[in-house]
Amino acid sequence: MSTNHLATAQLLDADAIVTMYRLDAREISGDPNALLCFTPMPLGSGNLVYQGYSYQPVPIVASGFEWSGKGPLPRPTLRVSNVGGFMVGDIVAYDDLVGASVTRIRTFVKYLDGQPDADQFAHWPVEVFHIERKSKLDQNELEVELSVAFDQQGSYLPGRQMFASACTHIYRGFINGGFTYAKVTCPYTGGAYFKLNGDATGDPAQDKCGHRLSDCKKRFGENGQLPMRAFPGMVLGR
């Protein structure tokens, strides 16, 4: 890591500090595009770019990130503007984003990509958090509560409601003569089609998933690696 940012911080005319956030739901969703990058600081009329990531300026209120090194680890709150539905689709699709990671990175404007003194290594230590719960979502604002990535005491796995026999993946739909994969989380893109009851069909318009273990095996193979999001081995505790 570069120490340029520390030297800059000592200057009387130091640049403005930029804070950027990456909300990464790729692991919990299986969607390679489930990554949102945003910042509360506009710079001109476009996005901020740092380390190759493009951050969209949106109104953000962040609190609770400070930690003195003593006492409980921070449990920050992040409030992000939802004007225009910036966040809604991803929240609905990915189990309220519980378990998704939020990376916070801070540097000076002068070190952003495209600046004369650009330096992708000149930043304060990267902070990684996990979303514990969504506390608010309406047409104006999303609010989530975070925990430090290694502070998982008292958490429940997998951090979402568990069903023994019902998969919670969002399956593809057939619209206007073709499949749509918008906000779909199930990775199946094959050419074998099955009805809701599990019967095979040659009509793609009838392709529906019953969200059972048997439906998953028909698409991915009896002994294949199944991406099912149910928990067939789960039993009720007594």
Q: How many strand units?
A: 13
Tell me the span between the first and last alpha carbons.
Answer: 52 Å
- Label the structural class: mainly beta
Percentage of β-strand residues: 25-35%
Shape: elongated
Low-confidence stretches: 150-157
Task: Give a short account of the largest sheet.
Answer: 9 strands, mixed
Protein name: Phage minor tail protein L
Pfam families: Phage_tail_L (PF05100)
InterPro entries: Phage_lambda_L
Organism: Roseococcus pinisoli
Describe this protein with a few key phrases:
238 residues, mainly beta, 2 domains, 9-stranded mixed beta sheet, two-stranded antiparallel sheet, 4 helices, 13 strands
Description:
- Pfam families: Phage_tail_L.
- This is Phage minor tail protein L.
- InterPro entries: Phage_lambda_L.
- It comes from Roseococcus pinisoli.
- The chain is 10% helix and 28% strand.
- The strands form 3 sheets. A 9-stranded mixed sheet has the order 3-4-2-1-7-8-9-6-5, with no helix packed on it.
- It has 4 helices and 13 strands.
- The protein is mainly beta and 238 residues long.
- The model is unreliable at 150-157 (pLDDT under 50).
- The chain has 2 domains: 4-148, no CATH class; 161-238, no CATH class.
- The longest helix has 8 residues, at 213-220.
- Strand 10 and strand 11 form a beta hairpin.
Could you give a quick summary of the protein structure above?
This protein has 238 residues and is mainly beta. The protein is 10% helix and 28% strand. It has 2 domains: 4-148, no CATH class; 161-238, no CATH class.
